[in-house]
Amino acid sequence: TGGLSVRDLSFHYGQKCALDAVSLDVAPGRFCALLGPNGAGKSTLVSLLTRLLVAPEGDIHIAGHDLRTAPRKALAALGVVFQQPTLDLNLTVRQNLGYFAALHGLPRGEVPGRIDAALGRLDMRARADEKARALNGGHRRRMELARALLHEPKVLLLDEPTVGLDAAARAAITAHVHDLAEQGLCVLWTTHLTDEVRDSDALLVLHRGQILHAGITGEIRGDA
Ligand code: ADP
Ligand code: ADP
């Protein structure tokens, strides 16, 4: 499978159970929202998926690669937009992406073309030579999304990607993420906002470290 698969993943901080046998699947081409209130375990899951933490129990496969036994391949198939922005405001959009490309060892000759392609997917080509400082919050987020696509991942992990954005910027990001899913990416988008799950095509509800509900978004539209 080219998607994301998590099996029986558990994690404890000392005595505190943050994730309790979590399993989930997101297929290629699907835009899945992971909804959970503060403390549900979203950040812990993101840390495990990005291997900032390693779980003693459970398995994670990214595009078919086992994160435990083949971490380089698994992480190479993952694009991430972290909740905290990471960008240099004094660099241009292109320079910010170029820095990331160098950090990840992308072939030098391919970098300019990949940057243009990634920015194009987010309708950001016109902003390539602007300083990040000059961009509004929505465009900064789109720059980060473009950056997450540079190495052509199969799975895209977005950790509360709309925090701090206004409604118009949120709608723009959501529309772009839908396009990316339609192009075949597997998307997992975390949020604590019930409003945002309407935009996804699949939904997981995380509560106190457990998946309470997994289904298509329409099922809970009535009570969201
Ligand atoms: P969310 O991102 O959904 O708010 P977290 O993954 O941050 O949830 O937290 C899940 C649970 O683990 C919460 O009960 C939280 O208090 C606890 N927790 C998170 N980080 C730590 C830590 N470093 N030490 C102890 N408990 C933690
Ligand atoms: P989106 O609606 O997808 O968020 P933008 O935020 O890029 O698109 O564009 C918002 C508005 O700003 C549009 O009307 C667009 O024509 C205009 N615009 C886009 N890029 C520039 C630019 N570099 N300078 C001035 N206006 C721009």
UniProtKB/TrEMBL annotation:
InterPro entries: AAA+_ATPase, ABC_transporter-like_ATP-bd, ABC_transporter_ATP-binding, ABC_transprt_ATP-bd_su_PQQ, P-loop_NTPase
UniProt GO molecular function: ATP binding
UniProt superkingdom: Bacteria
Keyword tRNA-binding found: no
Short name of any one Pfam family annotated for the protein: ABC_tran
Keyword ATP-binding among record annotations: yes
Family: Belongs to the ABC transporter superfamily.
Name of this chain's protein: ATP-binding cassette domain-containing protein
Species in which this protein is naturally found: Roseobacter sinensis
Lineage: Bacteria, Pseudomonadati, Pseudomonadota, Alphaproteobacteria, Rhodobacterales
